[in-house]
Please model this.
Amino acid sequence: MQPPIQAYLDNLQRRLAGLNDGAVASYIPELTRADPAWFGICMATTDGVAYASGDADRQFTIQSISKPFVYAAALADRGVEFVGRKVGVEPSGDAFNSISLHPQTGAPLNPMINAGAIATTSLVNGATPEAQWERILQSMGAFVGRDLTVDEDVYRSESETGCRNRAIAWMLKNFGIIDGEPMASVENYFRQCSILVDCRDLAFMAATLANGGVHPRTGQRALSEEHVERVLSVMATCGMYDFAGSWLYEIGMPAKSGVGGGIIAVLPGRFGIGIFSPNLDLKGNSVRGIAVCRQLSKDFGLHLFSRKGSSGMALGRIYTAADAPSKRQPVGEMREFLNRQAYRIKYLCLHGYLAMGGMEYVIRRMIELAGETHSFILDMHQVDGITESAAAQLHEARLGFAEEGIAVVFSRIHGRKSIERPLSRTNPKNDHGYLSFEDNDIAVEWCENRLAGEALDSFATDVALADCLLLRDLPAALLARLEEVATTRKYFAGQKIITAGQASDESVFFLCSGHVSILVPLEDGAHQRIASLGPGMNFGEMVLLGQTTRSATVSADSEVVCRVLSSHDINRLAVDAPELKIALLENLSRDMAGKLRRATQWIAALA
Ligand code: GLN
Model:
């Protein structure tokens, strides 16, 4: 099954590709060669999985996105205090190429504008400019997870035209911010801006920051935890230049853009985002890049200060129905069957506040387990709540698994509005709704029945009337009489067989092939599925006890064949053969006792 997050990104990429505002950077001549149509998105998780969409492998120059990473190297080499004396951490509110220096000290206001970045470049370890360049390449390479190269054409182009940046470097020399040769530092700065990356690289650089400084795939530490916090702080307040305030206000993630069209955004503890699209707005930020982040932040609740963005790991223990079978004591073949097959029923214990990041991980684990799984039970007992975006992802995954014949059911969410509400609000149209059980025992019993039902199907897909549970132990002569009066009815998948609240037509249904869902109408017009029945089972039997109104809706899940007996016929036959009525009522009370036992369990679970 394709992870829902992948479909989401593909969809987002397709939709925002229609956004053609802005223009490619032109003040560096070589950058005008970019095609405005290029557009890639990549998300990398802190455990090393990447979801990419569009032109994810197209290389471009990193430009200003190098700034936080070279700042990181300077912090690592010189310490927070020393670097702090040379470069401030105050948002300038000015454009990226402004000459924002502190009026007294001459220190650039922050390391994200060019002045601060050129100063930072001069600070990294290395006895010569060449050695400093090696240090920069090695440090950035650790964030990307591979060796890096420079686009020589872009480098040359910027070096030939970079008078303004040279002027800034001389100013920094004048104030004693740069100790060495300012023109050498500015060349290193041009080179670092010309490093080639793709948006997958950007996503991993961001994910390394999100992961406390350790690259999610290589496991190499690129930066200490303490310095990661500093880097993310300046990204949050200064990363988007004179758009930084609005960015934090609205989108709320530490981020950095570059005039090559790249943007990175970091969701600490969870994932990194890399986007590439060359058309820039007037502030030098990628137009589609901003649009992607805006949409992601909104859809997934990623704002730093939102509770929805703060979920940790959502998945606790995983175990199977072989470890914890239902309390029912199956006998004979069923027991043997379950002994062999129950491992295919998996319980996943979720916990915490389920948001998009945690959900992505849960669904990924489910996809990994899918090959040996027949049903998933999501035990929600320790879940505090779920965001609508996480709920929507879960529904999509549930439907995707259903197509592969894998059921996803919930347990222990009953009456908990913070879970039920987002789940029902995001339930897709034309879906019968999710199946939810009051406790794990009922859930696993349902899954066991479903598992056994499949085996039953493989032996005898079409069950005869005589094989139906309600008719067990009937004398053969009586069964033959019932066969004569029973009619056969066929239904197509999705067809309603019985409607809740309607007067009963006295029919008792014996399911001979296919599956049906028993649905109870909810107040808001939706339905809650309470059971799913397979061949050999019956429904509508309450008319035998004199019930005149149908209490639930029954809908065919597949093509269905039923044998139908009317209570009139049964009563008529029973006049001559009272043992018919007795056997039927005995079987019925056995079923009812089972249902009552389960109902008692529900009540106990609710108490
Ligand atoms: N190399 C570019 C410059 O210094 C980087 C600017 C940017 O990406 N915002 O002008």
Notes: The domain at 4-299 is CATH 3.40.710.10 (Beta-lactamase).
